[in-house]
Write a structure and sequence with these properties.
Elements (H helix, E strand, L loop, with lengths): L2 H8 L4 H13 L5 E5 L2 E5 L3 E8 L2 E6 L21 E5 L7 H17 L13
Antiparallel strand pairs: 1-2, 2-3, 3-4, 4-5
Length: 126
Amino acid sequence: MDAVEAYILDLEEPQRSILEYLHQLLLSHPEVTCQIRYKIPFYSRKKWVCYTNPREGGIELAFIQGAELSNEQGLLQARGRKMVTGVVFQSVGDIPEAALLEVIQEALLLDEVAPYNGPKRKKRKR
């Protein structure tokens, strides 16, 4: 059993079922890998694409370059963040698989073609 599987099994329901579903969905894409970073699962191909994070009885699927995604499906919310956007699922039944697959495909395409620039930081005066 690897660290990610142990992490998932350590969660309570419904978070465990939600994360198992999202984990399998994400790993079904070619070359996507998962590792525990900052105590939560991060999914990457060339660079970090998204992560899953427990939230109030559910799981948030957050996309690192979410601000650059089209969000035509209306799933993603920034919630005060500049680059990261995500969606919180309270149960497996809440997951709109077709729409979520579109978002994941777009995020993976962005991972292939666009470098991650991060938010612009102001230079400090010396």
